[in-house]
Write a structure and sequence with these properties.
Helix content: 40-55%
Strand content: 15-25%
Largest sheet: 5 strands, parallel
Distance between the termini: 15 Å
Number of strands: 5
Radius of gyration: 13 Å
Shape: globular
């Protein structure tokens, strides 16, 4: 399974990448929304871990673009944020996200979310 991480916090992205690779996932990375959309079009990931607060194209807009693109519309998107703002969860689902993770999260929670969205 291929997973794309779109996250501007390099150390967090490195940690997630290491966790996913240990579990046998093929992992891609992009540091901003613009690069993430382009990488998703080339990589055709099964799951996209998408930070909300990212440069160039924000997470909500990136989610809408990925959902509307025939090359990426089948990927399951899990939105990630350090902000637990009221309305962000609803906004994430309205953009087409399959699930939502609030940072910081542990590896067990991450794997459960990936398993949940890929089963659906």
């Amino acid at each position: 399974m291929k997973i794309l991480i779109i996250e501007d916090d390099y150390s967090l992205a490195d940690n997630i990448t290491a966790l996913l690779k240990v579990k046998g996932y093929e992992v891609g990375f992009a540091p901003d929304g613009e690069a993430g959309i382009e990488t998703a079009r080339q990589m055709h990931p099964d799951v996209i871990l998408l930070d909300i607060m990212i440069p160039k194209v924000g997470g909500f807009d990136a989610c809408r673009i990925l959902r509307g693109d025939p090359q990426t519309m089948k990927a399951k998107i899990i939105m990630m944020t350090g902000l637990d703002r009221i309305g962000d969860v609803d906004r994430a689902f309205a953009c087409g996200a399959a699930d939502y993770l609030i940072k910081p999260f542990d590896s067990e929670r991450l794997f459960k979310k990936i398993e949940k969205v890929t089963r659906a």
